[in-house]
Specification:
By secondary structure, the protein is an all-alpha fold. The protein has one domain. The protein has 3 helices and no strands.
């Protein structure tokens, strides 16, 4: 993130690593402040579809609520 926006250049570099990885699992952990921008960027860039087209199973795990809100 840079100024509350996804850095497309760094995101693309991350996607290259993911798409070229064929022998291990990848976990991407982002902070709560990046959840909405990252989700939007994933949709805009079709990153999930691209990963699936390269044979990756995409699993999204998110926390609905926690802490005092629980």
């Amino acid at each position: 993130m840079e100024e509350s926006k996804i850095n497309a250049r760094k995101f693309d570099a991350m996607m290259e690593i993911i798409l070229n990885n064929t022998d291990s699992e990848i976990v991407i952990d982002n902070g709560a402040s990046a959840f909405i921008p990252l989700s939007s960027y994933l949709l805009e860039s079709r990153a999930i579809e691209m990963a699936e087209e390269h044979g990756h199973a995409v699993i999204i795990h998110t926390i609905i609520t926690g802490g005092q809100a629980f």
